Amino acid sequence: MMTNAVSHYFRSSIGRKHLVAITGLLLCGFLVGHLSGNFLLMVGPDAFNLYAHKLMSLGPLLYVIESALAFIFILHLYLAIRLNLENKKAGGKYQMKKWTGRGITVMSATMPYTGVILLIFLILHLKNLKFGTHYNIEVDGIQMRDLYRTTLEYFQNPLNVALYVVSMTAAALHTAHGFGSAFQSLGLNHPKYSKIIKNLSYLYAVLIGGGFAFLSVWAYLKGV
Amino acid sequence: MASTNNMTLNLKIWRQKNNNSDGKLVDYRVENVSPDMSFLEMIDVLNEQLVKKGEDRIAFDHDCREGICGMCSMMINGKAHGGYKNTTTCQVHMRLYKDGDTIVVEPFRASAFPVIKDLVVDRSAIDKVMASGGYISANTGNAPDANSILIPKPIADEAMDAAACIGCGACVASCPNGSGMLFMGAKVSQLALLPQGSVESPKRAMNMVQTHDVLGFGNCTTHAECEATCPKGISIEHIARMNREYLKAAFTYNEKKRSEGGA
Amino acid sequence: MGFNLDSKTPTGPLSEKWEKHKFEMKRVNPANKRKFTVIVVGTGLAGGSAAATLAELGYNVLSFCVQDSPRRAHSIAAQGGINAAKNYPNDGDSVKNLFYDTIKGGDYRSREANVYRLAEVSNNIIDQMVSQGVPFAREYGGYLDNRSFGGAQVSRTFYARGQTGQQLLLGAYSGMMKMVAKGKIKQFSRREMMDLVIVNGKARGIIVRNLITGELERYAADAVLLCSGGYGNVFYLSTNAKASNASAAWRCYKRGAGFANPCFTQIHPTCIPVHGDYQSKLTLMSESLRNDGRVWVPKKPNDNRKASEIPEDERDYYLERVYPSFGNLAPRDVSSRQAKFRCDEGLGVGPTKQAVYLDFRDAIKRDGRDTIAGRYGNLFEMYERITGENPYETPMMIYPAVHYTMGGLWVDYNLQSTIPGLHVLGEANFSDHGANRLGASALMQGLADGYFVAPYTIGNYLASTTLEKVSTEDNAFKDAEQAVMLQTTKLLSIKGKRSATDFHKALGHYMWDYVGMSRNEAGLKKAIDGIRKLKEEFWQDVNVPGDAGNFNIELHTAARVADFLELGELMALDALERNESCGGHFREEYQTPDNEARRDDEHFTHAAVWEYTGSGSSPIRHKEELAFENVKLATRSYK
Ligand SMILES: Cc1cc2nc3c(=O)[nH]c(=O)nc-3n(C[C@H](O)[C@H](O)[C@H](O)COP(=O)(O)OP(=O)(O)OC[C@H]3O[C@@H](n4cnc5c(N)ncnc54)[C@H](O)[C@@H]3O)c2cc1C
Ligand code: HEM
Ligand code: HEM
Ligand code: SF4
Ligand code: F3S
Ligand code: FES
User: Fold this and answer.
1) With 0-12 CB in 10 A as exposed, 13-18 as middle and 19+ as buried, what is B204?
2) Closest Cα partner for B227 from A91, A101, A20?
3) Phi/psi at B230 (nearest 5 deg)?
4) From ligand 3's centre to the CA of A82, what distance in Å?
């Protein structure tokens, strides 16, 4: 019965929803780390490059972390898209549909779209930065990749900055709903705290979206 | 309460012969509408005119006409029960509309609610979800004295908030995902809050969710449109409680088949 | 023919009758129960609780209702509460007290033994409902809360906000759904019972219309439980839900079930007045409002000033004036009648002059707006939603409306009608409320019947009766179905000029004007005449568009109206024959000099039980004499 219950869980609407929530929250966590790391850009090239290098030299552990991250992304994507397609089928089709203004929000209504924007962004992002031009540099006598240069060069193109600002808006919208929704989905909710969670959600969205957007504009203004 | 029958309204009402045929919006004009009429009384007037002309009246569900039975169900101008706060269709009054308004009326829709005729839909899926666990297994005659189970007032009140659900299905109709989480969450939550009900809580959550999924209801993505149109103001916090119960259940519920033999 | 109106009341002292009876009744052994099938028509408190309990015991239950779900039965609408003799508040209540209040409230026209049993099982009901998760109101210590209700001097009413009926019904419904899942109950929604099938003198099945497809369906069983609710909608306007109908009970009457005291109807004093001829139903405002609201009319007829402009000395607080000791809390029948008297005198208020004020001005002044809002906030909101007026500022307007029917199919102590195998539960029977029902006791009765009485007495019936095998292919079924089909074809073929609702409204006017709160011989005769004519016109001029092979609401309505037309006439006849005033039945000829009801215990201490004798001939009035061995008949006084 035990295994039965668990496997049933992963097939059920709520079970899968829990997974979207958990993976979503993990991604939210990743973004916090990533943003803090990226702020080292503002400290200077050496600090940033050293940080990136440290990460790169984790060796096998890095692969574990990267694969885990990839797995989380893919799982999140897969479940979210599936849920979305199912929901499209389940919902009523009306000749006229209007929202009450007390429930649905732009954020919640656009989750799949902002999600897809994030996906496209991510592909471009990895292609242009992680797999972008490879410069070498020596810091404190160690040879390493000059990721700082790659990044700043990239942002010299205003179109790229625009892409980032748009994508970060999407990220903000996605997390503004997603963060709070994840708590709801997991049942980590209590009448006493639901307002706080909602506000925290907005705060998170603004800080993360604003933070990344700020960095990309900063990089543009900084110049190479 | 002045009965000034002074409004003329243009209605666009969904007509559909039965589940197998296509439907469409049909235009009607109703004159001499009094602001004191209820929305359903306004449609009654239209129906009386149709019947006198020997035409098929507009079929719609209704019964108590005071907001408690959950039978009435219309999408009025794109909103379940008209979208007014804590209001059922039968409690909508014509003073909320103006002379010359055009009003679009459609049935509650969701893939779990097939249309039967015109504005009447089949909501038996709600009963099926309830049958799969929306109860406490207390057979008649088993009960101990009512006061032997003490329940703190705040808990009893919260359970009552959830129990107020009238099973109208507006939550499903207004949810973009056609999800039944609100009415189901309300029941799971009500019974989980009460000591009598918490005994079976894990099993209840598992079974009800399973049935819910099979019947073609969608998932919740926390749009909260259900909460906004729920005529009884049921909070989506009850969905959260159900999610929690479900999580607990999935990982801890364990029932072995044991033989119950005896001498 | 003739009826056997033996009540089968067990002998022995009142308080031991039910125990004794339970001991003496035959039982079906557990293994045999699954061989019996029982039909339960209706899923209200009576039907829902009976279906669940019988299924738990092991019987196969077939359950029917007209709504789209059993949870929507009209019991859902009850607001106030449910009585029980728990004596939790320690105010000296007891089974005996509850029994006595109910008998007195019913103006001594109910059967002692039944009422006593009702009071006895009332406590079990509360236990049962709590264990099923009904969230009754609680005090801070976690104990159940009680409140007081009209006609009682103790607090014995349990409640769940203003939605007690809903919560109880959902409890009964959940018990039912549990057994549906186990396969012991087969539930059929959107089905309307069209006829009772009798085989060898015993009720063995029903014919129902599938309201969606229009098809007629036959169901056979070993016993039939009729739990189809009251017939207040014969007045067209009432506080009953729109689908409440008399048809199921009426068809049983026409198959030989006695109809007892059809004229006993309850008119509730605090309802929102009629506002136009398009009005479809009336809304009850809880009686609890009379705890703080003062009822008044202007002293001057046709006073068109606003209520706030009428000075204190030009107001007549008539309930306080006529009943100094009970004041605004006088019982339902009494308060309703007084409101009618005032309006008849031309003192009514509002655009239709058929309303009186219920004023909270003084209460708000005394306790503050917040306190009053705390007590009645949701009711005030409901009132404002319907009328568009704010009761904090202008007094409410109220008027009496038809609310409950004490009359119904005659049953014996076992709740069996004059047809063996046909048991009648809840508001559909006549049993416990006499000529007037006290607040919060209908819910109690429905659940008592369904949970704690019928499950035993049905067992007794099944165990002690020889039941031949029947099949839905038997002639009795075919004939019954044929008769329904004929009626349907007839209704559809008239294609006249008036809608069924039109006739229903016309019937309602006769009923309200002549068979309503106050009745007299001339009026009743006029009503009988008028209704007969109306019935003839109906069968010549009704228009039922469409056909029988689909979801045809107009056809369902017409069939119900046809039955209401016949029932209305019987009610008038019953009222005409009962030459006394008692409870809700007020005959103007029989009143005291100060307009109070005058009972005639010498001639009318009985239930009038009507026997159908065919469509052309008059029904026969039989009597079940009521013996009062434990209470003394006294004049009800609330002065
Ligand atoms: C507004 C209002 C408030 C009230 N408040 C209170 C209160 O506070 N306390 C109190 O004690 N009482 C109250 N009452 C009275 C009480 O609610 C009813 O008397 C009681 O609920 C009746 O229950 P029932 O089970 O007999 O019938 P109902 O609940 O009326 O159920 C009838 C059932 O029969 C079915 N049915 C009917 N006809 C057919 C047919 N032809 N074929 C198939 N099925 C059929 C229906 O679908 C339904 O399921 C109130 C009544 C009203 C109108
Ligand atoms: C860094 C990236 C991302 C983060 C932080 C993130 C975060 C979240 C969170 C927290 C949720 C809410 C879960 C819940 O309600 O329980 C969510 C839901 C969702 N995400 Fe993402 N997500 C990210 C990327 C994506 C991507 C790339 C897609 C691609 C399509 C996507 C699609 C969705 C969808 C469709 C949902 C479900 C909709 C909903 O619950 O309302 N997300 N996400
Ligand atoms: C101004 C904004 C951003 C900058 C400057 C930035 C910078 C970088 C850089 C330089 C790398 C390469 C790291 C390496 O190869 O070691 C990287 C990797 C990555 N970034 Fe960003 N990033 C930004 C925004 C984002 C956002 C919004 C997301 C998520 C939605 C994101 C997700 C990732 C991921 C998943 C990787 C791969 C990590 C890995 O392989 O370890 N980044 N980013
Ligand atoms: S939760 Fe609200 S909207 Fe949904 S069925 Fe219940 S009362 Fe209706
Ligand atoms: S609207 Fe639908 S998405 Fe969830 S919160 Fe309500 S069920
Ligand atoms: S008709 Fe009962 S809730 Fe509207």
Assistant:
1) buried
2) A101
3) -60, 120
4) 26
Rounded CA gap, C120 and C439, in Å? 18
Of B176, B200, B172, B177, residue with least CA distance to B188: B200
B148 contacts: CB under 8 Å, gap ≥ 6: none
pLDDT, one tens digit per residue, over C246-276 is 999 999 999 999 999 999 999 999 999 998 8
Distance in Å, CA A19 to ligand 3 centroid:
23
Q: By C-alpha distance, which of A52, A59, A223 is closest to A137?
A: A52
Task: Indicate the DSSP class of residue C345.
Answer: T
Paired strand residues for C218: C207
Q: Which of C591, C378, C443 is nearest to C128 (CA)?
A: C443
- Ligand 2, atom 29: nearest CA belongs to which residue? A115
Taking the CA of A40 as reference, the closest ligand is 3
pLDDT in tens, C112-163: 999 999 999 999 999 999 999 999 999 999 999 998 876 677 899 999 988 9
Which residues are CB-neighbours of C439 under 8 A, at least 6 positions away?
A: C80, C81, C149, C150, C151, C157, C287, C332
- Ligand 4 atom nearest to B166, measured from its CA: 7
Q: Do B151 and C451 touch (CB under 8 A)?
A: no
Chain B segment 112-131 residues within 8 A of A by beta carbon are: 112-113
Q: Is the pLDDT of residue B128 over 50?
A: yes
Give pLDDT < 50 ranges for chain A. Answer: 1-2
- What phi and psi values does residue B209 have, to the nearest 5 degrees? -65, -40
Cβ-based burial of B149 (10 A; exposed 0-12, middle 13-18, buried ≥19): middle
B181 CB near ligand 5 (under 6 Å): yes
- Count Cα neighbours of C32 within 13 Å in the Cβ-side half-sphere: 9
> What is the token pair recorded at C374?
């705390």
Q: Between the CA of residue C166 and those of B131, B233, C216, what are the distances in Å?
A: 18, 16, 31
Whether pLDDT at C80 is above 90: no
Atom of ligand 6 nearest to the CA of B166: 3
Pocket test for ligand 3, best of A23, A31, A32, A34 (most atoms within 8 A of CB): A34
CA distances from C616 to B40, B193, C566, C612, C613 (A): 39, 60, 12, 10, 8
State whether the beta carbon of B69 lies less than 6 angstroms from ligand 6.
yes
Single-letter residue type at C369? R
Please indicate whether residue C332 is annotated as part of the active site: yes
Tell me the residue ranges of DSSP E strands in C42-177. Answer: 60-64, 82-83, 147-148, 155-158
ipTM score of the complex? 0.95
CB-CB contact of C270 with C282 (8 Å): no
B-to-C residue pairs, Cβ atoms closer than 8 angstroms: 240
Q: Chain B partners of C551 at a C-beta cutoff of 8 Å?
A: 18, 59, 116-117, 120
CA proximity to C207, closest of C546, C449, C474: C474
- Chain A adjacent subunits, 3+ CB pairs under 8 A: B
pTM for the full model?
A: 0.96
pLDDT score at B5: 65
Partnered with residue C199 across adjacent β-strands are: C202
Contact C69 B122 (CB under 8 A): no
Asked if residues B172 and B216 have their Cβ atoms less than 8 Å apart, the reply is no
8 Å CB contact of A103 and B226: yes
Q: Which one of the ligands is nearest to B187 CA?
A: 4
Q: What are phi and psi of A147, to 5 degrees?
A: -70, -30
Q: What whole-number distance in Å separates Cα of residue B224 and Cα of residue B237?
A: 10
Cβ neighbour number for residue C497 with a 10 Å cutoff:
12
Token pair of C436 as six digits: 């007037």
CB-based contact A187 B242, cutoff 8 Å: yes
